[in-house]
Write a structure and sequence with these properties.
With about 400 residues, the chain is α+β, with helices and mostly antiparallel strands. It folds into two domains: about 250 residues, Aminopeptidase, CATH 3.40.630; about 120 residues, Alpha-Beta Plaits. The protein is about 35% helix and about 25% strand. A hairpin with a 2-residue loop joins β4 and β5. It starts with 6 loop residues before the first helix and ends with a helix. The structure holds zinc ion. The site of zinc ion has 5 residues, from α3.
Length: about 400
């Protein structure tokens, strides 16, 4: 594919976006204001959606006519941390080496935002029959926290209704119509401390945690055995796993507390609430057994954030039909990561994922994006503008 004439514009924008080291969970005002100023200079009306503390802003805007239909282009402004990673360049200074551009967020997913902004002047002068919306969120990397907020803001702010959402997460510019859902839970086991020799008359919070962790592992097997599989994904089933476990004071003390943080990633046809309920039922069973020895024994489970729904857009949906001609590779893929796509779909916008960069570049040291991927994304924007123009 030939180099796109806007490639150097997009690289210049990417350089500026990468220079805002906004991690998930942190204030994103600097990058939000940078994008806001850019839109303002382009003469585009835009809206901030500010969080309660006033330190984070999502942005949305519309380019083109105030009519029903059109497409939302969605991206997130935050990135994952770089601490402890072996970076060979400054992660927050975009560094070109040949065809590769190194920097945190180059792929996930400031490359896509840079292409949206670089294509904006073209969008503005095109005779769009249907509008293009931008939707840029914050705190995506810590649980897609503002996806539902910005999707709802778009639905409520504009009288007219966009039809589709394209989430520009890295898919190597292929079209993805399915992704797994995701939730993270913290489970705490409260028991009573005692001398280790008295374990038979007490209940170790750590040993009870071990039973719960084994339950998570066995649940995967049970789901597979019950036919809960979906070959579009790797692995082709839902997963549960404990990633953090803390507890205990000393080897000779029966542990009075233990915390587990575990995640659940579901294929679209599985019901996360049902799986969680099965887990809670097992916790209750263990509580009843342990309370015969330690009356105050209890297990509490709280979600870390609202569940991020899976995406399962039909291969014959209008959004797939619309987006297919915009990409080179018409076959559909699915992605293993969670994104805001399911959240936009839940708000009534048919959603797919398509963005520059390769997923194996995400979240690692020396993250880069190929210039060619940016070029492909800019060609995609051209096609999009053309398809929406009268
Ligand atoms: Zn991302």
């Amino acid at each position: 594919m030939p180099e796109h004439p806007l490639l150097s514009d997009s690289i210049h924008l990417l350089e500026q976006l990468v220079a805002h080291p906004v991690l998930g969970g942190q204030s994103n005002l600097s990058i939000a204001h940078f994008i806001g100023n850019f839109l303002e200079q382009a003469g585009i009306d835009y809206q901030y959606v500010t969080n309660e503390d006033g330190n984070k802003k999502a942005i949305h805007c519309r380019i083109g006519p105030a009519v029903d239909g059109g497409v939302i282009l969605s991206g997130h402004t935050d990135v994952v941390p770089t601490e402890g990673q072996d970076w060979h360049t400054d992660p927050f200074q975009l560094t070109a080496q040949g065809d590769l551009l190194y920097g945190r967020g180059a792929t996930d997913m400031k490359g896509f935002i840079a292409c949206c902004l670089a294509a904006l002047p073209k969008m503005k002068i095109a005779s769009l029959a249907k509008p293009i919306y931008f939707a840029f969120s914050y705190d995506e990397e810590i649980g897609c926290l503002s996806g539902p907020i910005v999707a709802k803001a778009i639905r409520e702010h504009y009288e007219e209704r966009p039809a589709f959402a394209i989430i520009g997460e890295p898919t190597s510019m292929n079209l993805a119509n399915a992704e797994k859902g995701m939730g993270v839970f913290e489970t705490t086991i409260y028991s009573r401390a005692g001398h280790s020799s008295q374990i038979r008359t007490g209940a170790s919070a750590i040993q009870e945690a071990a039973k719960l962790i084994l339950w998570l592992e066995e649940k995967i097997e049970a789901l597979i055995a019950d036919g809960h599989t979906d070959d579009r994904f790797s692995p082709p089933h839902s997963t549960l796993q404990a990633g953090i476990c803390h507890g205990g004071l000393a080897p000779n003390i029966v542990a009075d507390q233990c915390h587990i943080q575990w995640d659940l990633r579901i294929i679209p046809k599985d019901d996360w609430q049902e799986i969680l309920q099965d887990f809670l039922d097992y916790c209750q069973e263990r509580e009843q057994i342990c309370q015969t020895k330690v009356p105050e024994f209890r297990i509490e489970t709280v979600p870390q954030y609202p569940f991020v729904p899976a995406l399962d857009t039909s291969p014959v949906s209008s959004v797939v039909e619309f987006t297919r001609p915009l990409v080179n590779e018409p076959s559909l893929t699915s992605v293993a990561f969670a994104s805001e796509a399911g959240q936009f779909a839940a708000e009534g916008f048919e959603a797919v994922l398509c963005g520059p960069g390769h997923v194996d570049q995400c979240h690692i040291a020396n993250e880069f994006i190929e210039k060619e991927q940016l070029s492909k994304c800019l060609h995609f924007m051209d096609q999009l503008i053309e398809q929406l123009s009268s």
